[in-house]
Design brief:
binds pyridoxal-5'-phosphate; 7-stranded mixed beta sheet; 361 residues
């Protein structure tokens, strides 16, 4: 069966070699006589999967042992709750930078638990860009500064993380984790649902630095809602999502096979230059939805001259073998989600299609 080109925003395309490896060892995981779907989370094979994926993630980020790599359920959305629950207790506060729907949701949950502050927001500009460093109003007493590194729906992305004057950043990297090399020296916490750029749905990656773990609440919180429990039990307080963690390990190995994060970044930049370059070269037909300096290399958002043409573009695109081109229901338009697993060739084909479509319409 032919696989189509999948631009779904999440769950999203996985690298084909990862799927093939899963298929090849699905019935008998490395001589255990059992599927990885059937092994114990307290068995030696899973202990190794866990240790390997933690080591690979730290290697790709260039992180030292001060960062703890954790796995849990509940999606990135549960981290909107757990982060303030653990770190904003007892009247402490945090700063939130609002750059799209996901940061608004994170703020909403923090407000249920306390009094976070908004350090900046680009909502008045319909989230067409991320704030400039000089626009941030950081508070002195914040325990962390929360930001969304890539705005999946709006199609914007931070090019580098802002200086937060010594306050650790807590970053929702759900839609651009490990898509490029980044200076993370002021990042104290990272979280990401796996289903966009790490693996299949069902596990959330949480990385926390020791200084923030030390500030986490220990009393008055239920056991599984405390980051400290997950750190102390190495994510094995209860049964973790074994299969998605295994798939994530294969994904991390695939990054190695590409030549590491530097090579993955190079491909991602190439894809972005191809697609944005083509859009810009075709005049006003494919209008970018974001300001140039904030353009995301993961989710490219655009509009066509009319909603009818957009609907036609999506329909004809599907016929030509492209899936997932419809913009998020809250903003409309066209969105091309091209995470790490999307090959350069897929974008070359899309650009050809876009030229043909414009010529015929
Ligand atoms: C998809 C997404 C989420 C939500 O993730 P869930 O795992 O479904 O909770 C949060 N933040 C960002 C930036 C996303 O792209």
């Amino acid at each position: 069966m032919d696989r189509i080109i999948n631009f779904n925003p999440g769950p999203a395309a996985l690298p084909l070699p990862v799927l093939e490896k899963i298929q090849a060892e699905l019935l008998n995981y490395q001589g255990t006589g059992m599927s990885v779907l059937e092994i114990s989370h307290r068995s030696k094979p899973f202990e190794k999967i866990l240790a390997d994926v933690q080591q690979l993630i730290k290697k790709h980020f260039g992180m030292g042992d001060e960062y703890k790599v954790l796995f849990m359920g509940g999606g990135a959305s549960l981290q909107f709750v757990m982060l303030p629950l653990n770190l904003m207790s007892k009247g402490r506060t945090a700063d939130y930078i609002i750059t799209g729907s996901w940061s608004k949701k994170a703020l909403k949950e923090a407000r249920i638990l306390g009094a976070p502050k908004v350090a900046a927001s680009t909502e008045e500009e319909k989230f067409t860009r991320v704030p400039r460093p000089e626009e941030l109003k950081l508070s002195k007493d914040a325990v962390y500064v929360h930001l969304t590194s890539n705005n999946t729906i709006a199609g914007t992305q931070w090019k580098r993380f802002p200086d937060t004057k010594g306050v650790p950043l807590a970053v929702d990297m759900s839609s651009d984790i490990l898509c490029r090399r980044m200076d993370i020296s002021n990042v104290g916490m990272i979280y990401a649902g796996a289903q966009k750029n790490l693996g299949p749905a069902g596990v959330t990656l949480v990385i926390m630095r020791e200084d923030l773990i030390a500030q986490c609440e220990d009393e008055g919180l239920n056991t599984l809602l405390k980051y400290r429990t997950l750190v102390e039990k190495n994510s094995l307080f209860n049964t973790p999502p074994v299969f998605p963690i295994y798939a994530m390990k294969l994904y991390m190995e695939w990054i190695d096979d590409q030549g590491g994060l530097e090579a993955v970044e190079k491909q991602n930049v190439e894809k972005a230059e191809l697609l944005y370059g083509a859009m810009d070269a075709m005049g006003d037909f494919y209008r970018g939805a974001t300001e140039k300096e904030s353009r995301s290399i993961m989710n490219v958002t655009m509009s066509l001259p009319s909603e009818e043409l957009e609907a036609k573009f999506i329909k004809k695109g599907l016929e030509a073998g492209f899936n997932g081109l419809k913009g998020h229901r809250s903003v409309g338009g066209i969105r091309v989600s091209m995470y790490n697993a999307t090959p350069v060739k897929a974008i070359e084909k899309l650009v050809d299609f876009m030229r043909t479509f414009k010529a015929g319409n």
